[in-house]
Predict the structure.
Amino acid sequence: MYARPFIDTLDFARNGKEISAEVPVAEMPRLLDELENPQGILSYTVRGGLDKQGNPFLDIGIAGQCQLRCQRCLSAMDYPVRLDARLMLRDQAALDELDDEEEECDSILAETHMDVLNLLEEEILLSLPIAPRHESGVCQAADGENAPKEEKSPFAVLAKLKVVK
């Protein structure tokens, strides 16, 4: 069992703290629902800081590999995870006032006891493609949908009616 790290987000950011570690993909149960298998290890770094205006943030970096299910052929496909994000820390009132269109970075609620793996898992889930597929030409549809079909002439049926003498 992997020890889940918890942080006080505002203290973490104000003191410029940093966490770096590796986590098995199997430790992220919500992510497992989207994966072909639970194998793989992700490395991550969470770094706190203050921007030029003194607003606290978390910089998140995640790298690794997982396997998704191709929606065309239904077989496993390797999917590289490479994610870098800055999340601004806000209280509930500040989050309620935010206009999503004006904000350059995503914002999250500042918490005194945040589960870092839950945060990472959510960021990974948001970055996954909705319908992952191998690149075109790499696989065939499981039901043969993309198999090449013979083009039939609309008059081919008439050829069968033709009487041979």
